[in-house]
Structure formats: structure tokens, C-alpha cells
Design goal:
Blueprint lengths: L14 H14 L6 E6 L4 H11 L4 E6 L2
Parallel strand pairs: 1-2
Helix pairs in contact: 1-2
Length: 67
Amino acid sequence: MPDSAILVEPKAANTGQNVSLSRALLAAHGCEPRSVLLISKPYMERRAYATCRKVWPEVEVCVRPNR
């Protein structure tokens, strides 16, 4: 994947902010996805899923561990 295809959200201090700010970043680039893939530490998978469902209920969420 080329570097130009990667968007980085560097400002979040927690999972909720990361989802909200990432959503805004994607929208600013004209991207409104129907589904998202969250990569998370195994112990954070459930929290990441639940937070994304609450903050961004319109998207289908899939979570995979970062190993």
C-alpha cells in the first residue's frame, strides 16, 4: 500500500476520541465508509468494538488483534 493511501490521526487521547477524529479525518478526505476494520491490542478488542458502535453506529465494525 502506498504511503499516500494512509491517513494518520495523531491527536486522540482515548478510544472514543480516536474513533471520532478518525471519522472526521476520513470525511475531510471525502470518504464515508460503510464498514471499518479496527486493529487493537487483544485486551482492547471489546472496548474498541463497543466504543466504535456507540460513537459511529452507522458503520459495520470488525476488530482484529494487533499481534
